[in-house]
């Protein structure tokens, strides 16, 4: 054992050593805490990105020249949504994506020259996106 040093020099060394130990412990705690925040931020970013991609896939041409081609395109996009649902970070979002895909498959496509209003189209899109919009915009789902 070494004898304990006394005096002002020894006291300063102990204070510095204590400060260094405290700084190391604080840095470690902050690193762990920030890693947790980074996980939450990454999850939130992934969720927001996925929601944006999905919304982009759901919009269709309200007055297509070729209704059959548009129907095929919508069904293809619905299949893509089903694949994207597998990437969903949580069950609620996955179900909303699958619900949106199902609504897209059952969407009625009206060709050019048929009776259709812009308000009717917007209403259809709004109904199609209802579950997804609620899930993607609910801030409690990002915790």
UniProtKB/TrEMBL annotation:
Superkingdom in the source lineage: Bacteria
Protein name: Uncharacterized protein
